[in-house]
Amino acid sequence: MYLTMDFEGKTAVVTGGARGIGRGIALELAALGSNVVIADMAEESAREVVAEIKAGGTRSYYCETDVTQQWSTDDMVEAALEEYGQLDVLVNNAGVGGSSGFTTRKKPLVEDWQATFDVNVYGMVNGTQSVEKYMVDRGYGKIVNISSISGRVGRSGFASYAASKAAAINVSQAWAYKLASHGINVNAVCPGLIWTPLWQDIAKWRKATDEQNAGMTPRQIFQQTVSESVPLGREQTPEDIGKAVAFLASDRARSITGQALNVDGGIRMN
Ligand SMILES: NC(=O)c1ccc[n+]([C@@H]2O[C@H](COP(=O)([O-])OP(=O)(O)OC[C@H]3O[C@@H](n4cnc5c(N)ncnc54)[C@H](O)[C@@H]3O)[C@@H](O)[C@H]2O)c1
To answer: Is the CB of 66 under 6 A from ligand 1?
Structure first.
């Protein structure tokens, strides 16, 4: 049997698809033929991604979604089914670095723990719970969760974000077990260093809280991190993450479930 990477006629929902990595994932899936629902709260940029996808010749739709609310991810799944008649792929990508103002804090407040766990963990649980019954009844589905290399090992720094990303790997494994007998694959992707608004916030946080970084621009802080830590010597891009997600969401990866794939230029080899 020839297993294809063709997503023609399939439908994917990408949470947090309005910008950054989510946009890269959405564009890659669309380039492979998928209808793509952009599920996000940032309407203006989400609509720009929808227009970009449509200009490339595939169908796309914006669904205003707050992943921290179960009713909202329920609406997201219903809207996708109403619009396209089927749902094949869910990418739980929406994420935050902390609560408002985290870039100026030396250590996380309880609000930062709450915000990261609400979006980065409960957000993917909500999305998965909303799609689960439909995928189980159908006996088919692909779920890809976006974790991070910071979820691989605890380090000093913003522990709330890293802990939420570690939880995202564990949650992916739990759902992979639960859904395996129903023809549903659940995997995680752990991106490395991608210059998105989220990393721009992390660089601002390092500049504000670490004297060694005080004289550097946020972009210089990012570039220094890349040159010090990436064996392949370059930053990763949203497209790099999109290609890994597309593989895991395709039937070519039908025998892969419960895995977390580092896409990080070799930062963490495990
Ligand atoms: N940028 C990196 O280097 C990096 C590295 C590892 C992991 N990640 C992870 O990749 C994912 C995407 O990150 P990014 O860098 O593109 O961030 P980003 O800030 O550029 O984009 C995040 C998107 O999520 C959306 N979002 C936030 N809260 C939401 C909510 N409650 N409901 C719906 N949408 C919501 C935002 O509106 C935004 O469009 C995140 O899970 C992040 O933790 C990023």
So the answer is: yes
* CATH label of the domain that carries residue 17: 3.40.50.720
Which two tokens mark 96?
């935050």
Q: Give whole-number Cα distances, 50 to 43, 95, 103, 134, in Å.
A: 10, 20, 30, 25
Range of the domain at 37: 11-192+236-263
Any domain includes 206: no
15 lines ligand 1 (CB under 6 A): yes
pLDDT digits (tens, 9 = 90+) for 14-37: 999 999 999 999 999 999 999 999
Give the CA-trace dihedral at 13, 19, 22, 24, to 10 degrees: 110
Judge whether 2 lies within some domain: no
pLDDT tens column, 40-75: 999 999 999 999 999 999 999 999 999 999 999 999
Instruction: Looking at the CA of residue 68, tell me the nearest atom of ligand 1.
Output: 31
Q: In what order do the strands lie in the sheet with 260-263?
A: 60-64, 35-40, 11-15, 89-92, 141-146, 184-191, 260-263
CA-closest residue to ligand 1 atom 19: 198
